[in-house]
């Protein structure tokens, strides 16, 4: 697991700035953001998790890994649509995964280049892939690249959890979060992760 050298600094600064986040950091002090360590698997996992519950996504992800050991791009690019549908993927997501796998297998996507690219450019490259929207690209920035200042406003669970924590009304929740999160810069990823952590019994990993 790749260490995150700035995590402790981010926690200290967020603790000073926001008592709500400070309480979450204290409650989950032994946990840290981590990912699979593999760009392709992170992206696949995020695709699987689009618009379904964490429990449903975990179940499908487990069946996908069992059906395609190693989750190699070439294997998934060559997979029959029916084989992907059999693990619980929708027809649409099965098509997305085959296309993305093909882009990785053919070298059209080079994750090694992302380390030298700003967030915006990585985001643009990812969202050019069919099936990859802003939320999915944000998951790659957070869980694979460990970029420190990502705020995934397309994550409804995050928006609703923030509204609950801060006592915001139903209207303009995403906008309220956007505005409130300015105090978290340049550590919006960390504040986001602790809000997610508070939602689930175990830390989410992509």
Q: What can you see in these coordinates?
A:
The two termini are 12 Å apart. Helices cover 59% and strands 0% of the residues. Helix 10 (156-166) crosses helix 12. The protein folds into two domains: 7-33 and 150-199, Endonuclease Iii, domain 2 (Orthogonal Bundle); 39-132, Hypothetical protein, domain 2 (Endonuclease III, domain 1). With 206 residues, the chain is mainly alpha-helical.
What tags apply to this protein structure?
Endonuclease III, domain 1, mainly alpha, 59% helix, Endonuclease Iii, domain 2, 2 domains, 206 residues, 12 helices
Question: Would you spell out the secondary-structure blueprint of this structure?
Answer:
Elements (H helix, E strand, L loop, with lengths): L6 H11 L1 H9 L11 H11 L4 H14 L5 H5 L3 H6 L4 H15 L13 H9 L6 H11 L11 H11 L6 H8 L7 H12 L7
- What is the terminal separation in angstroms? 12 Å
Count of the domains: 2
Unreliable stretches covering 5 or more consecutive residues:
none
Helix content: 55-70%
Average pLDDT rating? 94
CATH class of the largest domain: Mainly Alpha
Over the alpha carbons, how many angstroms does the gyration radius reach?
Answer: 17 Å
* CATH architecture type of the largest domain: Orthogonal Bundle
N-to-C SSE string, H for helix and E for strand: HHHHHHHHHHHH
Shape: globular
- Residue share in β-strands: under 5%
Number of strands: 0
CATH superfamily of the largest domain: Hypothetical protein, domain 2
Q: Treating each run of at least 4 consecutive H or I residues as one helix, how many helices? A: 12
């Amino acid at each position: 697991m790749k260490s995150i050298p700035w995590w402790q600094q981010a926690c200290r600064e967020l603790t000073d700035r926001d008592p709500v986040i400070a309480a979450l950091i204290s409650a989950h002090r032994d946990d840290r953001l981590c990912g699979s360590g593999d760009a392709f698997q992170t992206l696949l996992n995020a695709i699987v998790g689009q618009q379904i519950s964490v429990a449903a996504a975990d179940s499908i992800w487990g069946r996908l890994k069992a059906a395609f050991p190693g989750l190699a791009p070439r294997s998934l690019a060559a997979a029959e649509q029916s084989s992907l549908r059999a693990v619980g993927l929708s027809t649409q997501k099965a098509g997305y995964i085959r296309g993305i796998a093909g882009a990785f297998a053919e070298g059209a996507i080079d994750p090694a280049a992302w380390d030298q690219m700003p967030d915006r450019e990585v985001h643009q490259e990812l969202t050019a892939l069919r099936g990859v929207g802003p939320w999915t690209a944000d998951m790659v920035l957070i869980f694979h690249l460990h970029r420190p200042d990502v705020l995934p406003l397309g994550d409804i669970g995050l928006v609703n959890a923030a509204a609950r924590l801060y006592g915001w009304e139903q209207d303009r929740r995403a906008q309220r979060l956007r505005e409130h999160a300015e105090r978290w810069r340049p550590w919006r990823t960390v504040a986001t992760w602790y809000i997610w952590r508070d939602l689930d019994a175990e830390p989410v990993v992509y």
